[in-house]
Every structure is written in structure tokens, then in C-alpha cells.
Amino acid sequence: MTTIDLRAYEPAAAPHVVALWNAAVGDLFPLREPVLRQCLELNPSFRSSDALLAWEGDRPVGFGYVGLHRVVAAETLAFRRRSQLQAVVVHPDRRRRGIGRRICGQLALAARSHGSETVEAGGGMFYLWAGIPEDVPGAVEFATSLGFELGTSSWDLRGDVAGLRLDERTEGTLVAAGMEVAPGTAADHAEILGFLYGEFGGEWWHETGWFLDHGGDPAELLLMREGGGRLVGLARIHTPESRPVAPPHFWAARRPPAAGGLGPIGVAAELRGRGLGRALLVVALDELRRRGLTDVVIDFTSLLGYYGPHGFAPWITYRHATAPVARLIGAATAGRVEETA
To answer: Is the pLDDT of residue 150 over 70?
Structure first.
């Protein structure tokens, strides 16, 4: 039997990972090299041992990645002991040989060294998948065989906004509340981060701060202000040219060239229930439509009731799950299963 050697990720291996990934699941999730490099190499928490390649001679046959949060910041302290198994892929002609289990076991050891007692399936920060992708045959079964316990579902939603317009109802809601919506500027940086942390916590704070620090255009953040002053709402729009690339455009090959994205979006807690969240959503979708980006994806959400009335429906379904680290380590040597997750 050929020896399988697990090695830590190195930047030079990125093209190999992309080729392996696309051979395994590229029909559903076509990975591009810039997206992979962004999630790994531009991730301030990433270390090379957080991603592993399984080599058979000079050929990579498996890949896995665990998300570990190492940023030292009071705003993200709650994430310091959380770990996410972001992805495990095995080449189609090397499945059922225990390769995926070995990768999971080694990544679980890394999670334990990080101080984690449990591992989540996907999600967190710098994720490729928000959870276990139900579209991938055998993915859920593989995860449960490792000891993951299934929980709720979330979705990437997709909708056509070609017929949407900024209507009188929306304009009336904004006028009655004294609200104005305008693109952000570089001068809004600190205020934006303060608002996001205060209203939505460390994950949105970290994600948006990283986006702006890495050259993201602040004008893609639509800001709702009360009387043109206090910031009370935010919606981030995405275009095919947006950099860094956001999750709505991770699987761009499955979408038309002129495609848009949305998220995160939210208004201050004290203003919810007054129709302002709906109004901000319509403004953001109308902006995408005006730019000709009528095919819109909203990633990683469970709010079907919020987005559904505007024509959005599930595009990709993710199943959330958790497993004790010790269980994953033990399962790594316990039998062989179809490894497609």
C-alpha cells in the first residue's frame, strides 16, 4: 500500500489544493486560487499547520483546514477557544481509505492544542463553508460517522432583483423616521467598527475591520443615519470587482458574470420592529439592481422570513454540527467510510 504523508500547507501548494478540490467537489463548489489564499494566507489567525495536505508520493490526494482564532483583541475574546473544521476533501479515486479521517484526527489535535473542547462544522471566521454542505453527496454521513451531532440549518439565499424598485413604502418609512442612507467613506472607519461591535458583536467587527484594512471599498458599506448624524444601520453590498472577495462570490463560476451579493445587514436594536430593517434591505437591493447586478446571493443566514418576501430562496443548504475534540481524535482510526465531505 502506498504511504500517505500528511504535510502542513505552504503557499506553493495552493495550485495543488485548488486542483484537488475541484476534482473532488468542483462541480458544485468551484474553488479559485485567490479565494483559497485569502482564507488561509490573508487570515491573521492562520498558521501553516491549520491546513493539511495528504500526499501520495508527489500527488496530493486530500486536504483539510481547521479555523482557529488567534487574534488578541477584547472584541473577539469569546472566539479564542472555538474551532471550526472548515473543509475536508479527498480525491474521488482515493476515498474509502481512511485519508479523510486521518486529516480530521490531526486537525482535531490542533484544536485541542489550541484549547478547544469541541469543534464546529464550518462557519466562524474565514470559512469556506458555513456548515456541512448538504449538496455534497455523503457529506452529512461522513460528519456523523466522525461523531458530529447535527443541529440547525442555514442557507446561502439567491434571488433575482431585476423587478425590484425603491418603492413609496420604503421611502415613506425612511422619511417618517428621519433616516438617510448613503455610502460609507474612509472617515467612517472607527464609527462603523464601534457600531458593529456594540450592536452585533465581535464577528461582524472583525470581518468588517479586516475587509477595510485589506483595501475594501468603504463605499460598499451603505450607512443608515438618523437625521444624517448617528449611525444606526449598515448594509454591505458585493460586486464581482469587490476585493477582498466575499462569500457571496466564492463560487462565482456557478453564477452569471454580472452578479451581486449582500451581507452583513442590520439596524440598531432599539429601532427594530419599525420597518427600518426592511427599508435598508430594499435600498441595498435597489442599489445592486441599479448597477446591473440582478442575480444576488445572501450568504450564511437563517432569516428566510426577512429575505423571502423579496424573492430570495435557498440556493445552498448548510447543516450545522458540533463534536467533542476527543471523539474526532478517536474516530480518526476507527474504520473507513466514504470520504466526500
So the answer is: yes
Q: 239-261 pLDDT, tens per residue?
A: 999 999 999 999 999 999 999 99
* Residue 93, C-alpha cell as written in the block: 479515486
Residue pair 296/259 in contact by the 8 Å Cβ criterion: yes
Q: Are 312 and 111 in contact (CB under 8 A)?
A: no
Phi, psi of 160 (to 5 degrees): -105, 115
Whether the Cβ atoms of residue 161 and residue 289 lie closer than 8 Å to each other: yes
- Here the CATH number for the domain that contains residue 209 is 3.40.630.30
CA angle 91, 95, 98 (to 5 degrees): 120
Tell whether 224 is covered by a domain.
Answer: yes
C-alpha cell at 111: 484544536
Which domain does 123 fall in, by range? 4-154+318-331
Residues 174 and 95 in one domain: no
pLDDT at 234 over 80: yes
| Same domain as 61, residue 173 | no
* Non-local CB neighbours of 101 within 8 Å, separated by 6+ positions: 146, 331, 332, 333, 334, 335, 336, 337, 339
> Is the dihedral angle over the CA atoms 97, 99, 100, 106 positive or is it negative?
positive
| CB of 184 closer than 8 Å to CB of 223 | yes
